[in-house]
Amino acid sequence: xxxxxxxxxxxxxxxxxxxxxxxxxxxxxxxxxxxxxxxxxxxxxxxxxxxxxxxxxxxxxxxxxxxxxxxxxxxxxxxxxxxxxxxxxxxxxxxxxxxxxxxxxxxxxxxxxxxxxxxxxxxxxxxxxxxxxxxxxxxxxxxxxxxxxxxxxxxxxxxxxxxxxxxxxxxxxxxxxxxxxxxxxxxxxxxxxxxxxxxxxxxxxxxxxxxxxxxxxxxxxxxxxxxxxxxxxxxxxxxxxxxxxxxxxxxxxxxxxxxxxxxxxxxxxxxxxxxxxxxxxxxxxxxxxxxxxxxxxxxxxxxxxxxxxxxxxxxxxxxxxxxxxxx
Length: 327
Description:
This protein is α/β, with parallel strands linked by helices and 327 residues long. It has helices spanning 33-45, 61-69, 117-131, 150-163, 176-185, 206-213, 244-247, 253-269, 274-283, 298-306, 314-325; strands spanning 3-5, 12-14, 16-19, 50-52, 79-84, 86-87, 97-104, 107-113, 136-141, 166-172, 190-194, 216-220, 288-294. It has an eight-stranded parallel barrel, surrounded by five helices. Strands 6-8-7 form a three-stranded antiparallel beta sheet, with no helix packed on it. The relative contact order is 0.15.
């Protein structure tokens, strides 16, 4: 495994990070708890020491399973990344920005983007309990909250830094303008954004800014929620309640299949899977500190970790990028 320094911090993150959205079950068709815990432990055992989760994932379940999975490991060798700012339990008392309706135990639960100082402090205490730890390595706002001044949110993060409850503070899904505004109040460590071969929007402005200002970039959905594995063009089937049934419809699936068919010989030549090839390509893009990869079981977790071992030549990268330009 490779490790990279996160922005202006002393944190060293594994270049592949364990993404814990799916193990929470929410919106992903569910998952077996024992498989989820095994996937986390297999990741750590294969050098993936950075784990990214959030309170919203499974309405706390993802954080709880991460806390369970890391028992027995040296906490100082693991980097726990979590978030705040998506409130579903009604504690926001109608405040904040309505985001969407989620489903929990057959009931519709309204989810709000809310990042007031008081709400953040409460969320962090709950996350610490679920994760069974006394500090969080990187705390990130999950989504921008337009009803709370960014300065108020950043001031809360600064207080948490002073209290030692977090080691670093970052943002997620922030635009360039929002990042710049946040920097006026706090020297944030990172921005977490969606990025993949099919979604390279951040290259226009966030990447140049990050390179100039030493801002870490954490990327999620590099596999476009499994689409770039190629298995959904074969025998892969999604459960009826899996959100990806609708999500995949935004892409020209015929072109995506052609692209994957074009690059698959490179993976085959290296004895690698398409997933591993895509992950490796993503880690090589400018300004990226770490790439989130989800896993439902130990086998997938090990495969993700081993993707870093692939060596891509300049010609192979050119071939991939040429094929990408035709999408």
